[in-house]
Structure formats: structure tokens, C-alpha cells
Write a structure and sequence with these properties.
single chain; about 400 residues; alpha/beta; Rossmann fold; 2 domains; 14 helices
């Protein structure tokens, strides 16, 4: 894949650049949860470079799932504040997504100024990939840059239809991610270990089916493992699992049992609470009232041994119920194991639920690549065509 990538030799002074970023991060009490290596922090580096070239930036992002309605809980005002802190300049916020007031604010921008549009998903045209909405967005800029790999698997107006209206480029952050993932997908250096957690089998299956013939091992954990347990007729108590994934798990075990590694023990609790007592039990002894909330100590030892010889490690999805910090210990241990292989192996990590664990453990810079996209990373590795990338192909 050859993307139409922005060239540094181009003059930007005085030009209004419409930049799609991924500012979809958790917000707690009006403050975004985004560490020094987080999504917004990383894209801010590219925005600052554009500012230094004299560009006038019109930045756009979505936040959450307001489904085409204006909802105060999903305003991008906290994103504007975070960008202001990172860039060291005021970031103006347009209370409109598009329209006369947004256009007036864009016209008044001076070299190096930054304007952030309100949540794209407040407008119903965004998720419909509306050409009319894309034209309104395009009216705000002279050229377009997509620096949001995480949303490039969506055929939405701000990543797809808008490219028909303006000269369009891939931003540096997006181009870097695509380059690493493309090389990894085409010719991963063996031995290759695929590490898969999370819950939904349907998002993981295409990657499993594409990579199983060429990987040396697949390490399964988290709620994803529970579907495999049920396929083996093991009890999982009250643990979450994907019922539709059970038949798939049974087929994968039949065809690839020599490559698939499942947990041998789990951390079990009687309730999903930080006050719950955690017991480590064999996967054959999960009680009827138990939740399997984390991977067990013995499993981590087995998985560490498999990882030791790997030259390529691809990880997507947590290994525990990480909404409760005490149930994220196994995922943190796994993260440290994989990080320790960086340098000896190419290590790529992705998944929206995984990244906060890495930030908390201060491991964000310890991998070859921490992808900004969970779903986009999975679809790319599965060989699917991502609309936002197809639109930027030369």
C-alpha cells in the first residue's frame, strides 16, 4: 500500500489545514485521560510541526457515541484543553461542527493558530459518510490530512468522503503505523507469537484465520479464552464469554490445537469488585458462582516460556477484567514480559482497553509500536481494506 503522504518540502504558510485526529479518549470529571504517550500527546507532535511551518489548523475528532445528537457529556472541550497544554497555545473551540460560525472562526485564523471543531459525531452526516457534510467540512480548509489511523476503518465523512473534496494526505503518525503493520503483515520474522485477549471472537477471528498458518503459537487470554473453555465443555461460572464464538473456538481447536495455548489457571472472584477476594484455581475448577477475572500465575509462567524465543509478537486485548485495577495484574505482567522482548523481537500492541494498562505501568515507550487503533489494527492485520486508507492511496 502506497499512501499519498505529506512532503515536508511543501509550503504551508498561510494555509488552512483540515486535520483529522483521534481524540477519542476517556474523560473523567471534565479532564481527558491521556498520558505522555497517549493518543492526543502523540498527534500533538505532528500538529506542532504543522504550526511551526505557519499552517492554520482546523482540527477535528469524535468523542464517544452520541449518535448524531448534541450531548454535553461528549463535548470535545476537554480535548481542546489538553491540546492547549501540549501545544502551549490557546486552542479555540468551535461550538458548531460546521456552519457559518465555524467558517467565520476558520477564516479568522492566523499562522500557527489552532481551531478544534465540536464533536464530529454530533452531526448525523459524519457516520453516514454524507457528501454534503464532507463539503461543509472541506469549506473550512485548503487541504486535508488524516492522522487518525484508529478511525480509518470507518467509512465516515471525516475520513472518507472529505477526501473527494480536498487534496488529501496521510499524516506522519498514520503513515508510520501503516508502515510498521504492513511490513509485519507481509513478512513477520519467525518465530511469531500472536497474543489475543478481550471478549469478541468476531473481531479476532479474521486475524486468527489469516495468521494461524504462519504463526508458531497463539496465546489466548481474557474473556476470549472462556469461549474456548465452553467449547471444551468446561464450566466458566458467571464469567463473560461470546456465545457465538463457541462454535468458532471448537473449529479452531480442531484445526490448530498444536498452536493454540489456553490458560491452565485463572484468578476467580465471587463478585466484580475491588473488595472481592481473589483465588487462583485450575481452569477445571471454576465454580458456578465464580467470575474468571484474570489470568493465573501458572498460565503466565507457561506463556512467558513461549514468548522467550519469539522474534515477532503481536498483542491485542487485555487478559483480565481490567475495569477493576486488581484484576489487571495478569495483563500488567504480560505487558512487562512482551516489553522485555523489544529489541530482540518486533513487538506490536493494540487495543483501546490495553493501552490504559500500558500507560499506568509506564510501558508505552517499551514496544516497537503501540497502535492507536484497536479495531483498525485488527482489520488491517486481517487483510481488510480500510476506507480511510484506500481514500489516501496514490
Amino acid at each position: 500500500m502506497r499512501l499519498h503522504t505529506f512532503r515536508c518540502s511543501q509550503s504551508l504558510k498561510g494555509k488552512r489545514i483540515l486535520v483529522r485526529i483521534d481524540g477519542n479518549v476517556p474523560v473523567k470529571r471534565g479532564v481527558v485521560v491521556d498520558g505522555p504517550q497517549g493518543k492526543i500527546a502523540r498527534v500533538a507532535v505532528d500538529l506542532e510541526w504543522l504550526r511551526q511551518q505557519g499552517a492554520r489548523l482546523v482540527v477535528m475528532t469524535h468523542l464517544g457515541r452520541p449518535e448524531g445528537k448534541r450531548m454535553a457529556a461528549y463535548t470535545v472541550a476537554p480535548v481542546a484543553k489538553r491540546l492547549s497544554e501540549l501545544l502551549g497555545v490557546p486552542v479555540r473551540l468551535s461550538r458548531e461542527v460546521v456552519g457559518p460560525k465555524a467558517e467565520q472562526m476558520a477564516v479568522l485564523l492566523q499562522d500557527g493558530d489552532v481551531l478544534l471543531l465540536e464533536n464530529l459525531r454530533f452531526h448525523p452526516g459524519e457516520e453516514r459518510n454524507s457528501r454534503a457534510f464532507a463539503q461543509q467540512l472541506a469549506a473550512l480548509g485548503d487541504l486535508y490530512i488524516n492522522d487518525a489511523f484508529a478511525v480509518s476503518h470507518r467509512a465516515h465523512a471525516s475520513v472518507d468522503a472529505v477526501t473527494e473534496e480536498l487534496t488529501s494526505y496521510a499524516g506522519p503518525l498514520l503513515a508510520h503505523e501503516v508502515g510498521v503493520l504492513a511490513a509485519l503483515s507481509a513478512a513477520p520474522k519467525p518465530p511469531v507469537v500472536l497474543v489475543m485477549g478481550g471478549l469478541k471472537m468476531d473481531t479476532k477471528l479474521p486475524v486468527l484465520e489469516r495468521f494461524l498458518p504462519k504463526v508458531d503459537a497463539v496465546l489466548i487470554g481474557g474473556a476470549l479464552a472462556h469461549a474456548f473453555f465452553v467449547a471444551q465443555k468446561k464450566a466458566v461460572g458467571r464469567s463473560a464469554y461470546d456465545p457465538e464464538g463457541v462454535a468458532v473456538a471448537k473449529r479452531l481447536l480442531r484445526d490448530w490445537s498444536g498452536k493454540i495455548h489456553l490458560p491452565v489457571d485463572v484468578a476467580a472472584a465471587s463478585r466484580l469488585s475491588s473488595q472481592a477476594v481473589v483465588r487462583h484455581v485450575s481452569c477445571d475448577r471454576i465454580g458456578a458462582g465464580d467470575y474468571a477475572v484474570d489470568v493465573g500465575h501458572e498460565t503466565l509462567k507457561v506463556y512467558e516460556a513461549v514468548l522467550q524465543g519469539a522474534k515477532t509478537i503481536i498483542w491485542n486485548g487485555p487478559f483480565g477484567y481490567c475495569e477493576v485495577p486488581k484484576f489487571a495484574e495478569g495483563t500488567r505482567a504480560l505487558a512487562r514480559m512482551i516489553a522485555a522482548r523489544t529489541g530482540k523481537a518486533k513487538t506490536v500492541v493494540g487495543g483501546g482497553d490495553t493501552v490504559p494498562i500500558l500507560e499506568d505501568a509506564q510501558l508505552m515507550d517499551k514496544f516497537s509500536l503501540v497502535s492507536t487503533g484497536g479495531g483498525a489494527m485488527l482489520e488491517f492485520l486481517a487483510g481488510k481494506k480500510l476506507p480511510g486508507l484506500v481514500a489516501l492511496e496514490t
